[in-house]
């Protein structure tokens, strides 16, 4: 077992850390306050290759491994989770789904532009009544011979308004249940496709989350991903890898909060000495550091499994479950260590605490991860 990062991984870590500090940190509080999409920062991330990290260079991607991706995600998330979730969705869900299951024509038409950062994508599974219960799709895609007609609504879609390409999961044959679901590529601007209101969220307020409305949207047959009825399997396989990205995001949020708390504890004085010298604070820091290190090993193991071609359903679910829990607990403690200042936006930890919560919810709630884990261990 080798716990050291390669020279390439260390270079990626440094590049992501520098970008986070120099490009994401300035204005991050204002973007959060104003729910402002980080358009300029996303453009630069595309130019640096962060939006297609694992995509083959022949499709204009960076050709990196999953470990490189989670390392970059951690560093970006330490500073701005709103920006890192854009990276996660574009990499883990959209680019991965197209590269792994799309046709050569789909890759040429869409993947190259997505991987290069020319455009960004969105993954559309959740609905008002189909979040964790993904089989209960109400959005329909009726087969009309050479095209499908989509009707329905999608909820909580990251990159909802800024995406150009949407991977939409919809029901074609209800009698077939989950085997009657398809995944279709929808382009922004297709007639009948409307962007709904922007959600006013607790956290990750810089990312644009919208509902999407489909009114008789005509989508050509060549935009279907995989065989007829492959949509549900496509969604589950894609989300399985997406969980690794969100686990890395949660890890980064926790690590960012811990680093701020550690620094503050060495500067803030109470009762005649730095608060880090008080056992109550020192023990909090010890717990935070230990939990973050454990989460990091789980995230790295899931990334390693994916890179080795192993089944990563279990390791990815465990990484997301634990890292998101650590993110929530660590950010709460970071606010506590900051005392009254922790409640003030200028110290960043209150934003990290708000951002942490969503990691326990999206791309499979913690409860869903426990279902995945328990089924896996009971099956074995």
Percent helix, as a range, is 40-55%
C-alpha Rg (nearest Å): 21 Å
Counting DSSP H or I runs of 4 or more residues, the number of helices is 11
> Low-confidence stretches at least 5 residues in length (pLDDT < 50)?
none
Description:
The protein has helices at 7-24, 28-34, 39-47, 66-79, 81-101, 104-115, 231-267, 279-308, 313-338, 349-357, 366-379; strands at 121-124, 140-143, 147-158, 165-171, 181-187, 193-198, 209-220, 224-225, 269-270, 273-274. The protein has 380 residues and is an alpha+beta fold. The model has no long low-confidence stretch (mean pLDDT 97).
Task: Summarize the structure in short.
The chain has 380 residues and is α+β, with helices and mostly antiparallel strands. It is built from eleven helices and ten strands.
